[in-house]
């Protein structure tokens, strides 16, 4: 378990980081799409890429790993 916490987190693009930050604050994919002026499906694809890069099981796990790794220091 400790080994999994120590895994390096993949580098996110600036857009992926924006999407992750908004989702971590509680925004839905549709809300993120409106805020960032993109299609909801594009937001979903960004979330899929982030989840895969971070080796997270789901969105909650993705946000938890991001907080633990310091990617979301303002949360």
UniProtKB/TrEMBL annotation:
PROSITE patterns: HTH_LUXR_1, HTH_LUXR_2. GO terms for biological process: regulation of DNA-templated transcription. Pfam families: GerE. Residues 5-70 form the HTH luxR-type domain. Keywords: DNA-binding, Transcription, Transcription regulation. GO terms for molecular function: DNA binding. This is Helix-turn-helix transcriptional regulator. It comes from Sphingomonas oleivorans.
